[in-house]
Amino acid sequence: AYYNIHRLQTTQLKQLKAEHENDIELLLIRDRQLSDINSRLMRSNQDLESSTKMLIKKDRDLVAANQKLIHIDELKSDFVTTVAHQLRTPLSGTKWILSMLSKGEFGPITEEERQYVLKAYDSNNRMIILVNELLDIDRLENDKIQYVFGETDLFAITDDVVVELSPSVGMRGITIKIEGRENPFKIVADGQKIRSVIQNLLDNATKYIPNAGEISIKIEKDEKQAKFTIKDSGIGIPSRAHEKIFTLFYRAPNATQTETDGSGAGLYLSKKIIKKHGGDMWFESEEGKGTTFYFTIPFGLKANSKER
Ligand code: ADP
């Protein structure tokens, strides 16, 4: 019996040893696998470290490039502003000389000569508008536009703008009608800025209209707001261009074909000015038939100056 027990124990021991050896084998395999994983992790870690270093360097490069771009942008904007300012004075001088020439104030001129002078006057006026638009874009982008709200007469401003345009407009046989005078009223607004809006709308109406076309302006009010409407019998705006009309520098294809003068900045700026007054600007148009632009200015704005 003792012998049998001994044999049984020996067999069990052998079995245990075998199992133990198996376990050791497994552990060794695991150990090898673990060290494998570990070395892979170390490699990934090194990769990560070098990627991070590269990213930090790229980030630094980007910051430097960005600063350089900001600096170039400032230089560009300073350059545009300086040039625009410098152009303003000689352009205004030319405007008055051309106006006097066209009226024969320097001596009589023939009708043909007068027409050439009026063409020059027209182009000069457009250049003044463009220069002012460039200055306004710069001011707007750099938050430098200051609004001076005061008592403003939309009728007087419109008359002023029409008189300024009238020599060339008359020459082309375009008629301009102004309605609403029987119910005069005043609003509180930035008169200079509203003047540039009306000037832009009227300039567009005369630009995108054939000779002998008609422009009618209506100035009216209800209890809440003043409303300005300008309707022309011009080339109209193609429906696919409607949503882009107030985008900076956008010009519809039929406009660029008709009239090369134009920046596509006027309406963008005009709508910003009207929005700043708490009003709105929109239009209705059909290609080939004509266009109507509208803007509103709410009543009840507070004046920070006596008048426009
Ligand atoms: P632009 O200097 O080109 O006139 P605006 O910003 O004043 O720039 O107008 C943007 C575009 O809107 C014009 O290029 C033209 O396509 C269209 N547009 C504006 N007013 C009229 C109009 N009265 N008739 C036809 N198209 C117009």
Bound ligand species:
adenosine-5'-diphosphate
Q: Provide the β-strand percentage band.
A: 5-15%
Could you give the distance between the termini?
126 Å
Tell me the helix content. Answer: 55-70%
Task: Please describe the structure with a list of short key phrases separated by commas or semicolons.
binds adenosine-5'-diphosphate; two-stranded antiparallel sheet; alpha+beta; elongated; 6 helices; 7 strands
Structure in words:
- By secondary structure, the chain is α+β, with helices and mostly antiparallel strands.
- Helix content is 60%, strand content 14%.
- It contains six helices and seven strands.
- It has helices spanning 2-102, 111-141, 154-171, 191-207, 253-258, 266-276; strands at residues 150-152, 175-179, 187-189, 214-221, 225-232, 280-286, 290-298.
- Strands 2-4-5-7-6 form a five-stranded mixed β-sheet. The chain has a two-stranded antiparallel ribbon with strand order 1-3.
- Helix 1 runs antiparallel to helix 2, helix 2 (111-141) crosses helix 3 and helix 4 (191-207) packs antiparallel against helix 6 (266-276).
- The protein is elongated and about 145 Å long.
- Adenosine-5'-diphosphate binds next to helix 4 and helix 6.
